[in-house]
Amino acid sequence: MAALPSGLLEACVVVGASSDKLRDIYQSRSNELPLLEAEVLQVHAPPFVSKETNSSQVIAPAFSRVQKRRSFIRKKKRDRSTDTLPNGDSVSRPEGTSTTEDISVPKDLDLIALPQLCFPGGLQLASELRDDSYHYLVFTDLFGNRTHGVVVQYYRAVQSFHESLTQNGGRPRTRLYAAFAVCIISKFPFYNALRDCLSCLLVQLRTSRQGDFEETVKEFSAKLSLVPLPPPGSLHVSFSLRPLQVVLPSREDPDGPLVDMDLHLPLLCFSHTVLLQVLSCLLQEHRMVFFSSDWSKLTLVAESLLLYLQPLSWQQPYVPVLARGMLDFLMAPTAFLMGCHISHLEDVAAETEDLILVNIDDGIIQSSWSDTVDLPSIPVAAAESFLSRAECLQIHYDLDTCHTGAATDVNAVRFQRRDWQRRLNTQIQNIALELVVNTFRGVQDFLNHQHRVFNSEEFLRTREPGDQLFYKKVLETHIFHSFLRDRLNRKLDAFSRMEQKTLNLSHRNRAMTESPRPPLMPKTRSGFRNHTSPNQKLSKRLGASLPNLDQPLNDAMASFVFSSHRAPAAQKMSPDAGLKSPPKVVRVFRLPEFPPPLSYHYVKNYYSDMVAALGKALNATPPDDSALLARYHYLRGLVNTVSNRRLDALEDFQSLYKTDAEIFPSEMVKSLVDSMPNAERIQAEKRPEIKGLIGRVIRDQEREREGQENRPEEAAVKHFQLPKKFLHLEEFVKCVQESGIVKDQGTILRLFDALTVGHQKQVGPDLFKDFYTIWKETEAEAQEVCLPASVLERMETGESVFKLSSSVKTSRGVGKIAMTQRRLFLLTDGRPGYVEVAQYRDLEEVKVSSSPFLLLKIPSLKLRVKGKREPFEANLKAETELWNLMIKEMWAGRLIADQHKDPQYMQQALTNALLMDAVVGCLQSSKAVYAASKLAHFERVEVQMTLPKTTTETLKHKINPSLELAAPQPIEVLYYTLGHLWVSLGGGKVMVFDASSWSLTHTCQVGNARLSCMLAVSGDQVWMGSEDSVIYIISMVSMVCNRQLTDHRAEVTGLALDLDKYSHKVAYSCSAEGTVLVWDVPTLQVRKRFRLSCDRLQSVHCSGGMLWCSSRDSVMEVWRTGSVKSRVHLPEPQRASFSAVVLLSEREELWGACSDSADLHVWRVKDTARASQRVVLPDCSGCFCMIPVKNQVWVGAAGRSSVKGKLYIVDPERYEVLKELQAHADRVTALCSAEDRYVLSGAGRLDGKIAIWKKMQTTGRLQEYLQIPSSRLSADSRVRTPTIG
């Protein structure tokens, strides 16, 4: 049978005093009631019901997994006639001798320590009946896996055979009560639900006969083993355990925690300030002990606090309840989190050192060496935001419900309270998550994913001075190390989502350009950043989805983004913002009533009823509610798995791809497939969807095995360290990238040449240390510059000082020359003032001259500026040559950036200039300036990078999606939807840009393979065809990809949209081996499939009731039934293959292009047999993509000359090239049109950029065209679909 995940019940254990001890105490006449030793009396663990098969395999129909088991020895009476009943009943037959019993228990269940934990204060008899008491346990194994327990202590009278003597004249005895504990052990923290279950069990025990005690507990345990756990999402599961209806809540997302407790308990126990102190101590991993007089508070408060820190996970020893015999655990030298009874507080404080003591009852925190705690606090900005939000929480249920009437139904009251608690828990989790995000925001900026390095020193330097001690301690903890590992693995968890959601626009614009170092501006404290909600941004964009690129956008973007690398402060929002979020709709699936006799056949019928109920729920759910459908399919698949209906289970799990692939149980499906007998495999081959699922599971297993062999160690997180040996080129590149100074390999190669001028080609550790130190010191010195207000008023928004000279004499006075990313200005001495020197684009000449002084000639720097008669001259003395190099590089970078409309060139020039400064500072030799000249890149290539006038007039802006990567990535697909540009890079990475500012808004990971095509099928869905044969569906609202279509068996190369004869929306997809699928968009079901005979099918489109399919060897006109009406081939002498095809419907023409030819071929649609018209593209080696834009055809190609990437604008009226544009440094791989106003082009790996072009205006009437996209081509989603003929 397939392996199941852990179910609700791991085991149910009954703990109490042995009957022998109870009899002895009862028979003794002592008035003192001693403490007793608790023992395990019963252990109940799955399987409870099973059926032996002919293959000697046991089928156990229970959702709780059948665990590996081991033996456990407990005492037992040899003679059944002398056995003692579980409640203490005994008979007067002392001749019964004691023996032992070897029982089978789950392997990972520790029954040795369990009795102490069930009675942490000791087991003691009572002379009067006491109330039931509940508490909670957490067990942690050596690997950090946690198991949870809920314990109820209840008292029953100890009755004896000797009591009958009182009726025969004997002396009456005092009645005694003994405590018994029932502990439910589960892998999941269902604290409230399991407490409800135990409450129902006690009702049954009180009304049952004493002899039925063990059978009652066993039946209760068996029922819990039949309960399926709800999948992550908004579907809960409920079941009846009379008199209560018990609800199992689901976790919100697959990686999130399961919450079934009252998270506001710490807010009731501590003031907000003390609560922050406790959280700070947890983050710093101190040795902490919680104290309370109530055992239940210890676990509930500790668990709540750890949930506050999510997704950071406590990595140290964790024992929230210590029995009195376990206090020696507190002597452990490592960090830990433990809990004790309040009676041990003084002893623990006196006998242990370096402990943080948290008194839950009094709501105070202290240390074992002092009554106060003097430790680093959580950063002020994050703490203030938390305090303002926490003040607005309504944590008192009675205040919230005082306006409601009294309920007469206990389950209705419980439902109302549970719903209130769920909403409050969500608010608390949001506030706590924001606290964590505000505390660790920006960590991602100091990670090097390629080498798995965290630059902790640089991260600390960007923190506020008063917060640095806190961060120094936190950075050394295991909890932070685990958090870093998740960031390096690019884990998309709650932290990542909230950080992305609350990033302001300036930080997102780093996708276009990035400062080489934090901007050097005076430090100010103006409070939190202003926050704009996504809804407000959307409303502002509705009127203008695209920016006006006729204005000089690149300057504005550059100046705006250069300031974005500063460590962002916490966001300032109104105190109640986010607390009153729209409530999520939660549905509850009610399980059928448990079968009375728990035999195999009755249990099998019970599962059949559950499958039928889930089928009804599926039929009643609308198709557009895919999330709810997925949860029902998951539950039904789980029930079918337990019922041994493997094929039905696989069919349900296959449906998860179309509804919500995030909850797909990969391990369970692999186990199902592996456990299938041959007969079932033959049946599975006849069911296409199951056959495809099995094939995918096998392929995934093979890829996983290959990946494990080649995968680097993901757990390792390194901190940057200066080298201790000589570095050759490869090691030098790695070390510089790890340091965070530069990522671009080309720049690092030039830096290596500069540092090794006149030496052996290796960099010594001392030289690297000097270079790194000077880089950091120069940065720190400039940070200390305090610019007066009069100077700040002259500078533009985002403009920063990056280099400041020493005080020098100039032709405009004495002062310091300041270099920003835009200009040079003089900061005058004496009374600080501002004297404009020049903006880089206005420079006409930069040279070194000499000024006579007495008999000496002092070198000086002379600048000639447009519009100014007199040159600017500065006596920079020894710095003259360096400033000459830096200014020339900045001047050349500005000119190239203006020509190419690419602000990154200016950024690169600034990086080069700052590296020159550091090289000269560390070499301190006569060759230092010559060495720095090796970094003057743009000054040397300025002439080669000059663009023709036609290109500069049409080009408006450039974006670099690969900016934060070590090397450029090819642009695989470009696609435009209203307000958004979708960009696909290699390996399934998708970046989404806001088309109103071309700023990055989202980054999504869509599978791990290259994407081939995109299509918006509705206002919320974008389909993406992938090389791994899957169509991924991403929501444009949530930007989450959790649905997949897996019916193809080869690379998905094309997508198209159309209406059928009943005006229902249908989608077409094609794959490389020739298969075409027709999809019903609302239900995501395959209506029809057929296969075309061709060489690599590349695209599909529909027009006039026909499909047009392009392959390498032909273009096919296909009936919707799948039969080919006609084929179009390239002319006989032409041995090339099609790379892109466009259909111009108004002209009834078919245009085709080839990847190794400069010719465009044009056919008349009505007569494709006739010879084609040919358009020759000048200086072209091949075409790779082509789109129609109104009355033009744009072709992306590769050039034959030094210009590798070219765009051709062709006039279809005259079959001639209107413009030839020098677009990229590599071939053009993707094109798309944005609202017929702009055309966007993407280039290959050597360039990796996106160019934005203004559409060329031509004369003639407006025409509309229909595109058949190639495998890397996507059309404007707003173009109408005309008919042909």
UniProtKB/TrEMBL annotation:
Residues 74-102, 510-534 are annotated as: Disordered. Keywords: Guanine-nucleotide releasing factor. Residues 83-102 have a biased composition (Polar residues). It comes from the Eukaryota. One of its GO terms (molecular function) is guanyl-nucleotide exchange factor activity. Residues 71-494 form the UDENN domain. GO terms for biological process: regulation of Rab protein signal transduction. Gene3D superfamilies: 3.30.450.200, 3.40.50.11500, YVTN repeat-like/Quinoprotein amine dehydrogenase (2.130.10.10). One of its GO terms (cellular component) is cytoplasmic vesicle. Coiled coil: none annotated. Pfam families: DENN (PF02141), TPR_DENND3 (PF25570), WD40 (PF00400). This is DENN domain containing 3. It comes from Oryzias latipes (Japanese rice fish).
